Amino acid sequence: MSQSELERTYFQDGLHGNHCYGCGAWNDKGLQIKSFWDGDESVCIYQPKPHHSAMPPDVMNGGTIAAIIDCHGVCSAIADAYRTEGREVGDGEKIWYATASLTVNYRKPTRIDGPVTARARLTEKTDKKTMFEVDFFSHDGVLTCDASVLSLRVPSEWADPTGLFKHIDSNS
Ligand SMILES: CCCCC/C=C\C/C=C\C/C=C\C/C=C\CCCC(=O)SCCNC(=O)CCNC(=O)[C@H](O)C(C)(C)COP(=O)(O)OP(=O)(O)OC[C@H]1O[C@@H](n2cnc3c(N)ncnc32)[C@H](O)[C@@H]1OP(=O)(O)O
């Protein structure tokens, strides 16, 4: 059943200290996308800003589209893992995933003058790997991109808000 806007719980609000450019609620200069469940699908609705344009000012930039799809896919993998364990996103021991692979097919130009929507569905899952297929629509309902996002579960120290490389360096 679909949630009304007021009832929605956004995955990203539970990912405390996430500074990711696309999905970090703690990155003031980032896109700060928000994702939620709509039945078995996850949805992200985002209002692009004029500076998210491609060369023509009324078309959305492909890298920004990829960032939205990437982050929506990874956050969906994280939310799915919490849901599988019967927990709200962010409750208890942290679950983190990172993007291993992102494929975006740009089928049509995406209008910038209204909210875009990414809808993702789970297509493959093992203990470590999660694949979401993502459809991306412009505000007039045109399917402008389709994509796949492969996310891999990573150790919880990857979520250290002070940085990752000190953990990697100390392991080598
Ligand atoms: C480095 C920054 C990471 C940032 C994220 C960190 C923590 C999460 C924090 C917050 C999360 C909150 C929100 C989401 C955050 C960000 C969203 C945006 C996402 C990003 O912006 S994130 C930055 C870009 N991202 C990277 O910077 C990753 C660099 N990379 C690696 O760090 C490793 O590469 C890793 C960990 C991905 C895998 O390493 P690993 O050692 O765990 O994997 P392993 O080799 O064991 O493979 C196990 C199975 O996955 C298959 N497999 C592996 N890689 C594959 C590939 N590329 N394509 C197809 N299959 C692949 C194998 O074939 C095998 O498959 P099988 O099990 O069937 O044999």
Automatic annotation (TrEMBL):
Asked if the keyword Transit peptide belongs to this entry, the reply reads yes
Cite the EC number. 3.1.2.2
Check the record and name the Pfam families matching this protein.
4HBT
Localization, per the record, is: Cell projection, Ruffle membrane; Cytoplasm; Membrane
Q: What chemistry does it catalyse, as a reaction equation?
A: hexadecanoyl-CoA + H2O = hexadecanoate + CoA + H(+); tetradecanoyl-CoA + H2O = tetradecanoate + CoA + H(+); decanoyl-CoA + H2O = decanoate + CoA + H(+); (5Z,8Z,11Z,14Z)-eicosatetraenoyl-CoA + H2O = (5Z,8Z,11Z,14Z)-eicosatetraenoate + CoA + H(+)
Q: Give an example GO molecular function.
A: hydrolase activity
A GO cellular component entry from the record: cytoplasm
Origin, by domain of life?
A: Bacteria
Which keywords belong to this entry?
A: Apoptosis, Cell membrane, Cell projection, Cytoplasm, Fatty acid metabolism, Hydrolase, Lipid metabolism, Membrane, Transit peptide
Q: What class of enzyme is it?
A: hydrolase
Kindly give the InterPro entries that the UniProt entry links to this protein.
HotDog_dom_sf, THEM4/THEM5_acyl-CoA_thioest, Thioestr_dom
Q: Name one GO biological process term.
A: fatty acid metabolic process
Protein family according to the UniProt entry: Belongs to the THEM4/THEM5 thioesterase family.
Q: What is this protein called?
A: Acyl-coenzyme A thioesterase THEM4
Q: Which organism encodes this protein?
A: Candidatus Lucifugimonas marina
